[in-house]
Amino acid sequence: MATGHSTHPSDRTLVIIPTYEELENLPLIVGRLRAAEPERVDILIVDDNSPDGTGQLADELAAADGHINVLHRKGKGGLCGAYVAGFRWGLDRDYQVLCEMDADGSHAPEQLDRLLSQIDGGSDLVIGSRYVPGGKVVNWPWNRWFLSKAGNIYISIALGGGLSDMTAGYRAYRRSLVESLDLDELSNAGYIFQVDLAFRAVEGGFAVDEVPITFTEREIGESKLAGSFVKDSLMVVTAWGIRHRAAQVSTLAGAFWRLGRDSVRQKIGR
């Protein structure tokens, strides 16, 4: 457990790593993270009852290192549910920064400092982005990169968030932002909850920033991402965008109506 007098929010950081059948990847990512952040960062492995023994290995890692913790869930409840459980665990233990990190090595622990430095600088949510200057993707086929890039452009236009990579899963949240969320209401439509979280933060007036990261496709195991992800996600985002734009139009119409009413009153008053 990270201890000592905290002078920055990042001095009390919890990195949440969800796992499901990541037996080979887990010790690699945990080892890299402990080497990159040996003092200020604690780790919470959230395992969804992996049949390959990932949960048991997580317990062994935790028994050997006080910075590592394990939360076992009864079944495969999805990535959103794992992070929500991790958020609640971290809030209960007074962590000031809560981070998301994949277990498969696609998020480089060596770049976590980029996110934490931005949090210490005043950001409420920092997204490790593939699509801002300096960000890049390694070992993706061209068509997958294109779908991801185009999808994020569409999401940004539909929701007006002004962000380049709203689907990204390498993130750092300030505690106050997580506390403001109704975690029970988060969307669980595939990985679209990442968009939901970012959009809620923007809409809530929180400071949301992006930093460049290198996303590397996993080398061990298979992706848990379903083939229908893009289609299903964009359908959900389209519905959100329609509601968002309708609300904007309604607000704008109301403002113009009040302006017209006040102008009439002024003329009558003369």
UniProtKB/TrEMBL annotation:
<dbReference type="GO" id="GO:0016020">
    <property type="term" value="C:membrane"/>
</dbReference>
<dbReference type="InterPro" id="IPR001173">
    <property type="entry name" value="Glyco_trans_2-like"/>
</dbReference>
<comment type="similarity">
    <text>Belongs to the glycosyltransferase 2 family.</text>
</comment>
<keyword id="KW-0328">Glycosyltransferase</keyword>
<dbReference type="InterPro" id="IPR029044">
    <property type="entry name" value="Nucleotide-diphossugar_trans"/>
</dbReference>
<dbReference type="GO" id="GO:0009247">
    <property type="term" value="P:glycolipid biosynthetic process"/>
</dbReference>
<dbReference type="InterPro" id="IPR039528">
    <property type="entry name" value="DPM1-like"/>
</dbReference>
<protein>
    <recommendedName>
        <fullName>dolichyl-phosphate beta-D-mannosyltransferase</fullName>
        <ecNumber>2.4.1.83</ecNumber>
    </recommendedName>
</protein>
<feature type="domain" description="Glycosyltransferase 2-like">
    <location>
        <begin position="15"/>
        <end position="180"/>
    </location>
</feature>
<dbReference type="GO" id="GO:0004582">
    <property type="term" value="F:dolichyl-phosphate beta-D-mannosyltransferase activity"/>
</dbReference>
<dbReference type="Pfam" id="PF00535">
    <property type="entry name" value="Glycos_transf_2"/>
</dbReference>
<keyword id="KW-0808">Transferase</keyword>
